[in-house]
């Protein structure tokens, strides 16, 4: 997964009838699954100067389920300074042969883009929005946003088309 944006996955671990589920979409079949990850790499290279996926935690709550908590960090190709993060869980269900037949993405939290501002203190950084590797977590109300890949791309597109950012003000980019 960490190399998702630089090279293709190994699809030998998936069944041909794999189902991909996010909060708004369901796709079935290995060809559709391959297309999803091709589209992520393609759009990642076009829309972002930097894009990376970090695996925060991997655990196996039962014999046929693997959970991965991940964080996607991206710097869009825009003339102002911005960085976004997109966190979620990938829940993989395995059949008796150890092949993945379902990939469900859930517990998504989205904060893109966010003007970079200095924190008032270290305590502000620690207590503001604690991330958790657990399937259920709490974000501060300003960051609470349930999303899907489609909403992610729509938000990026709106941001790029928007142009609603004011000029530098006190050294910070602010939204108008």
What does this molecule look like?
The chain is α+β, with helices and mostly antiparallel strands. The chain has a single domain (11-162), classed as Nuclear Transport Factor 2, Chain: A (Roll). It contains 3 helices and 6 strands; from the N terminus they run E-E-H-E-E-E-E-H-H. It has a 6-stranded mixed sheet. Strand 3 (48-62) and strand 4 form a beta hairpin. The longest helix is centred in the N-terminal third of the chain and has 18 residues, at 30-47. It is globular, with a radius of gyration of 18 Å. It starts with 13 loop residues before the first strand and ends in a 14-residue tail after the last helix. Residues 125-147 and 164-176 have low confidence and may be disordered.
| CATH top level class name | Alpha Beta
Spatial strand sequence of the major β-sheet: 2-1-6-5-4-3
Helix content: 10-25%
Structural class: alpha+beta
CATH architecture: Roll
Q: Per CATH, what is the topology? A: Nuclear Transport Factor 2, Chain: A
- Uncertain ranges: 125-147, 164-176
Mean pLDDT equals 76
Distance between the termini: 36 Å
Shape: globular
Q: Provide the number of structural domains.
A: 1
List the total number of helices: 3
Beta-strand percentage?
35-45%
Taken in chain order, the helices and strands follow as EEHEEEEHH
Outline the biggest β-sheet: 6 strands, mixed
């Amino acid at each position: 997964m960490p190399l998702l944006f630089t090279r293709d996955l190994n699809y030998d671990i998936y069944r041909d009838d794999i189902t991909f589920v996010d909060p708004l979409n369901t796709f079935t079949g290995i060809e559709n699954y391959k297309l999803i990850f091709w589209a992520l790499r393609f759009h990642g290279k076009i829309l972002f100067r930097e894009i990376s996926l970090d695996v925060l935690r991997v655990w196996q709550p039962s014999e046929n389920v693997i959970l991965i908590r991940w964080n996607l960090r991206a710097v869009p190709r825009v003339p102002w300074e911005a960085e976004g993060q997109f966190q979620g869980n990938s829940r993989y269900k395995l059949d008796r042969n150890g092949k993945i037949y379902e990939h469900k993405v859930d517990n998504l939290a989205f904060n893109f883009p966010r003007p970079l501002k200095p924190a008032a203190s270290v305590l502000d950084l620690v207590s503001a929005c604690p991330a958790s590797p657990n399937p259920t977590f709490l974000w501060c109300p300003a960051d609470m946003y349930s999303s899907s890949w489609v909403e992610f791309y729509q938000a990026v597109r709106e941001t790029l088309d928007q142009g609603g950012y004011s000029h530098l003000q006190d050294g910070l980019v602010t939204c108008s």
